[in-house]
Design a protein that fits this description.
With 316 residues, the chain is an alpha+beta fold. The chain has 10 helices and 14 strands. Strands 8-9-10-14-12 form a 5-stranded antiparallel β-sheet. It has a 4-stranded parallel β-sheet with strand order 1-2-3-4, with helices on one face. Helix 3 packs parallel to helix 4. The protein starts with 21 loop residues before the first strand and ends with a strand. 17% of the residues are buried.
Length: 316
């Protein structure tokens, strides 16, 4: 047991944690143990402590003795709340691990759940090649000699990243690491809840939220509204014939749509560097071509800036 800044500091054998879930023992400290899972990490905060303050010393001792009789994985007390003497007494009696942290209860819960689910995730090792393509994991599997490594090398040549070769360890991790409470506005908890969210809200919510996106004419939300409107208003986007230009250029994706005398020229740069627009492409764009949409406020005539996209409309 280890009590930070407390009178008792002893080391007991490490506790084995087999569950990635946690428990707030408020109900158990009142005497209700139905459905109680002692294998979970127990976390106390400002909810449990005020209740325990209302009890007499003998009542607290009895509550903690009932609690510590279970083979709990460990007890963490948040907000640097001092451990009750009765808690220390019973933890020592039953050899239970107790820790104190200065962290906020909600933040500690979110961090420890993410960590436990990562470390306790089921895993397997498989034969294959794992590469990252545009931020997504791509696992190449199959019999030896079919070209997995060669395919991966071609992807690496095109700027993608090798993660693992030959023996790939795959973990089944909770999706919590990819989740966050929806950031609706800049109010408390980003407007997601008036209670305590299960996963902590990203600290950028005062500036990054749905309300801000809707009101900002240059936001991603507004940009997609423009794209959707263009698709509804221009049949050429749906029905126009497609022709790929500069197919040998690995940095650029350029194509035209053709419907009658109407033309659309779409230019996209998929790299983080400026790339020159091929001359044979610029020669096809007339001087009176209209810029329908673009993700830069200022364009460079013969260059596409990092991750820039433009759509020109014109008639033949």
């Amino acid at each position: 047991m280890y009590i930070r800044d407390g009178p008792l500091k002893k080391d007991y054998p490490p506790a084995l944690w087999t569950s990635a879930d946690i428990n707030r023992p408020a109900m158990q400290l009142t005497g209700f143990y139905n459905y109680f899972d002692p294998k979970r990490l127990q976390i106390m905060g400002r909810v449990e402590s005020p209740y325990l303050d209302t009890l007499s010393s003998e009542e607290r001792r009895a509550a903690f003795e009932r609690f510590m009789q279970y083979d709990i994985a460990g007890l963490v007390i948040c907000h640097s709340v001092p451990a009750f003497p009765e808690c220390i007494e019973m933890a020592e009696k039953y050899d239970r691990n107790v820790f104190i942290t200065h962290e906020d209860t909600s933040e500690f819960q979110a961090d420890v759940i993410t960590s436990l689910r990562k470390h306790l995730a089921p895993r397997l090792t498989t034969h294959g090649v794992l590469v990252e393509v545009y931020g997504e994991g791509l696992l190449l599997i199959g019999d030896s000699g079919i070209g997995k490594s060669e395919t991966a090398l071609e992807l690496i040549k095109r700027g993608h990243r090798l993660i693992a070769d030959d023996a790939v360890e795959v973990k089944r991790i909770s999706r919590d690491n990819a989740r966050t409470p929806m950031q609706w506005d800049d109010s408390a908890n980003a407007g997601f809840t008036t209670g305590t969210p299960w996963i902590k809200v990203n600290s950028n919510y005062p500036k990054v939220n749905a309300k801000q996106e809707v009101s900002d004419p240059d936001s991603v939300f507004s940009y997609y509204k423009k794209l959707i409107r263009l698709r509804h208003e221009n049949e050429i986007i749906v029905y126009g014939d497609y022709e790929l230009l500069a197919p040998e250029d690995e940095a650029l994706f350029i194509y035209t749509r053709m419907l009658g005398t109407q033309r659309l020229m779409v230019l996209c740069n998929f790299t983080e560097k400026e790339v020159a627009i091929p001359q044979e492409v610029t020669e096809q764009i007339p001087a009176d071509a209209k810029l329908l949409i673009g993700n830069y406020s200022k364009q460079k005539e013969e260059m596409l800036q990092a991750y820039e996209a433009r759509v020109y409309a014109y008639h033949l």
